[in-house]
Amino acid sequence: MIELTRTTIQKRTLWVLAISQIFGTIGVGVAPSIGILLAEEVTSSEAWAGLARTASTLGAALLGLPLGNLAARFGRRFALSGGWWLAALGALLLVPAAQFQMVILLFAGLLLIGSGSAISLQSRFAATDLAADDHKGRSLALIVWVGTIGTVLGPNLGVPGQAISNATGLHVYAGAFLIAGIAMLLAGLLVFLLMRPDPLLLIRENDRSAGAALPVRQRGSLKRFASELRNNLRARYAVVAILSAQVVMVAIMTMTPIHVTHHGGSVSLVGITISLHILGMYALAPAVGYVADRWGYRFSIGAGLAIFAASLLAGGLHPESMGWIMTSLILLGVGWSFINVSGSALFATVISKQERASVQGGVDALSNLCGATAAFAAGPLMAISSFSALTVIAAIVLLPLAAMTSLVPARAGAEN
Question: In what residue span(s) does the Major facilitator superfamily (MFS) profile domain sit (predicted)?
Fold first, then answer.
């Protein structure tokens, strides 16, 4: 395949991924907002509602590896479209769950909608399949960045949901999830119809045509994932970066609204703080991708660690100042962006071609699982200590990554 053709196909792939990501994340974005409100209404129990709140995250963790295996076997097109459609099914199950207050459908729907989160993550890796090594960071960051649009719009589906409710008599939450389901159906349809040729299958075909030797597959998805990490130092470094950033970000973000309200902050202040945090997570992603490509992944991960440190210091030293807490959350989002984008791009660069889709699904599943665990643990930890103590624990979590960044030989932290 001549380079011009590869470049043209890559541009087409990025367009398809970007547009489908916008539609898909509109649907995914409804789960942590309206999904929480629905869970509280349907269950009428804080304990059960708490489980329902984490169902979508658990779904993303459980489905990440199978969807990665689907991509490995049949290509990105089938995995991404199938994942969006599975998430759409989850959203549509939540329509009767809201309308008729059905607990079983509530849990099933939220679990399946987690497929959308898994596919949103897998889409960023799909953007790197045909990208040149010195452009993988920017390609991945573009897909992360456009997801901001859906992430912002999704939590606000209650407004058109109310309009549907007024016109049809549907419950307002049912109307919101109906819109979410349609959006994710469209995302899957766009990928299925337009992602041709499939970037992952195209790479394999080119390797076969060039006579490249491909490693023999091991049995078992988990064995392949574990083997890749055991034998690939740079992959281990990337995974530690991704997981560390996820744990720290989720733990602090989860407890900030409670901390703010306990210190007299209003609900609107909580909303503004979280919105600015999300903006920090995604708005600078293209710039982060450029930095990673230009100066190396280890440099940008180190920058993310420094920003994380500033965030934790701001929140830990000034826990009663809402201005400092807001600053802390913005920096937390930016630090996460630097480490997550850089770690993900490094991972996409250094993993073996034969195991690419499977192990990418594995790291996404592990990331979601770690995020869910961090969310569960953060509450009890802060209950028995304080918000400042939680920032100290978060800083300790970052120490292994800091050690790897400073001590691992240059070849283990560079992109080449």
Answer: 13-412
Q: Please check whether residue 117 is in contact with residue 81, taking contact to mean a CB–CB distance below 8 angstroms.
A: no
What is the rounded distance in angstroms from the CA atom of residue 7 to the CA atom of residue 2?
9
Residues 115 and 408: their CA atoms lie apart, in Å, by 35
Question: Any idea what the CATH number is for the domain that residue 60 is in?
Answer: 1.20.1250.20
| Same domain, yes or no: 183 and 230 | no
- At CB < 8 A and 24+ separation, what contacts does 91-95 make? 91/27, 91/30, 91/177, 91/178, 91/180, 91/181, 91/184, 92/177, 92/178, 92/181, 94/35, 94/38, 94/173, 94/174, 94/177, 94/180, 95/170, 95/174, 95/177, 95/178, 95/181
d(C-alpha 346, C-alpha 34), whole Å: 35
Residue among 196, 157, 143 nearest 19 (CA): 143
Q: Are residues 233 and 200 in the same domain?
A: no
Same domain, 225 and 205: no
Distance set, CA 201 to CA 54, 126, 131, 198 (Å):
34, 11, 14, 5
132 and 240 housed in the same domain: no
Domain assignment of residue 214, yes or no:
no
Q: How far apart are the first and last CA of the chain?
A: 23
Max intra-chain CA distance, the chain: 66
Give me the residue label for tokens 């290509």: 75
**Phi/psi at 218 (5° precision):** -90, 160
Round to whole Å and give the CA distance between 317 and 171. 45
175-204 as b/e: b if 16+ CB within 10 A: bbbbbbbbbbbbbbbbbbeebebbbbbbbb
Under 8 Å between Cβ of 387 and 253: no
Domain encompassing residue 399: 220-416
Model's pTM, two decimal places? 0.80
Short-list 340, 373, 144, 355, CA closest to 250: 373
CA distances from 408 to 91, 394, 401 (A): 44, 22, 10
Place of tokens 């209003």: 266
Domain end point (choices 209, 239, 268): 209
CB of 120 closer than 8 Å to CB of 146 = no
pLDDT tens digits for range 12-59: 999 999 999 999 998 888 876 677 678 778 877 655 665 666 788 888
What residue type is 176 in one-letter code? A
